[in-house]
Amino acid sequence: MSLCHRWSCRLGAAIPLGSRKPSSKQQLSLCNYVILREVRNDKETKHDYRNRQRLRAYSTPTGRLVFQICGVFAEFERSMSRQRISADISLAKLGNALRPWLAQRLPHCRPLLERALAGDKDAAGELCLEAPNGLRGSLVLAAYYSGTPNPGYQEIIRSVWNHDHRVLMKTVQNREFIPRGVNRRELVRCMIAAAQFEHPLSGSLRAFRGASGVTLRKAANGLSWTLSRDVACWFARRFAPESSRWIVVVADIDASDVIFWDDDRLEQEIVLKRRVRASIDANPGTWALAADRHENRKQEGRLIC
Fold first, then answer.
1. Are 290 and 236 in contact (CB under 8 A)?
2. What is the mean pLDDT of residues 233-243?
3. Domain span holding position 300
């Protein structure tokens, strides 16, 4: 006997005597009647029924496991949201503080400053030329914190990075302009990535970086890389005449990791959006020869100019 047959006997539902199985319509009406009668007999509301089901689910080991996992993810998402909101508020406050600070130190460039921070490319380029070298790093910070739109922001970050990147790196070391807990090197990486530069590179690439007097880990931690081995060897020799202190590292990267590319000075410079694993170049005996090649190339370029 089916379930509906048994309930029909208990409830006295009208089912034809000769039928073995009730129709689908009769089954639905019987089931609805059973549910309503059970709820009414127990004097249980819909809200109370749901609460009882929740308690039943939480009383089992599996139910407690599911609830606790959901609580961990909810707490993690809440913490991440609070961190992002706090960071945005801090950046907005610093941007509002840097604007008048720059305006006081550049009284003759106030119209240019307002237009450049509003996204005007021509005004941004002219402002980078007019501003003293020591203030160009603060100019990039003000543009980044204020959310300066492109192409004005691109012009500011490109000009300062190509000509005064040391000033920018020194500026981000000033605790007055940097939020607490922010990695300064990663902040510069985020500032460059925010410009959304386009580049013609594609596929897998091999990047090089030259340094002197540092370990492999510290050399690979730098921001600026190059696609030319000769350029990397020249930079390794630039600040250390003794070849024993040179170090040239190489890393295999993908074009999607490149956030900045520039070849105005024949250096094929790139900046990566993340840290990469690198190793020391396998032919240190040819570093001096490669540096000489790039030096000759630079001299030829100066003569042509």
1. no
2. 82
3. 204-304
